[in-house]
C-alpha cells in the first residue's frame, strides 16, 4: 500500500471518528504531496513521497524545538501530537547498531579516510537510509568515524 493510499484510508477513518487533529495533519501532508506533484508535473514515486513526508516531520521537529525554547508548552504539545501522527507513516527507523554497520560499510565502499571525504560518504549513504534515520545523527556518526 502506497503512502497516499494509507493517507486516504486514514482520512476516511478520521472523518468517521470525527478526529479533527488527525484530519488536519493528514490533509496537510496530502496537500504537501499534491503541491510536490504539481511542481514536478507527474505522479510522485514512493521515494519522492517519503521525501515530502520527511520534510513535514523535520518542520514539526524544528517548530517543537522553537516552541520549547520560547516556553510555549501549548504550541509544543500540538507539535508533538502532529509529530506522533506523522511518525506512523514513516518507515521503521534503523537501530543505532544497524546504522553504524551501514555507515562503516559505506565508508569502506567509497574508501574514505578523513573528514575531507565526508561529502562522498554522505552522498553514498543517504540514499541507503532515506527516511530510516535522522540526517543530523547520521552526520555526527560519519564525522565520528572519519576522525
From TrEMBL:
Gene3D superfamilies: 1.10.10.410, Uncharacterised protein YqeY/AIM41 PF09424, N-terminal domain (1.10.1510.10). It comes from the Bacteria. One of its GO terms (molecular function) is carbon-nitrogen ligase activity, with glutamine as amido-N-donor. InterPro entries: Asn/Gln_tRNA_amidoTrase-B-like, GatB_Yqey_C_2, YqeY/Aim41, YqeY/Aim41_N. PANTHER family: ALTERED INHERITANCE OF MITOCHONDRIA PROTEIN 41, MITOCHONDRIAL (PTHR28055). This is GatB/YqeY domain-containing protein. It comes from Alkalicoccobacillus plakortidis. The lineage of its organism: Bacteria, Bacillati, Bacillota, Bacilli, Bacillales.
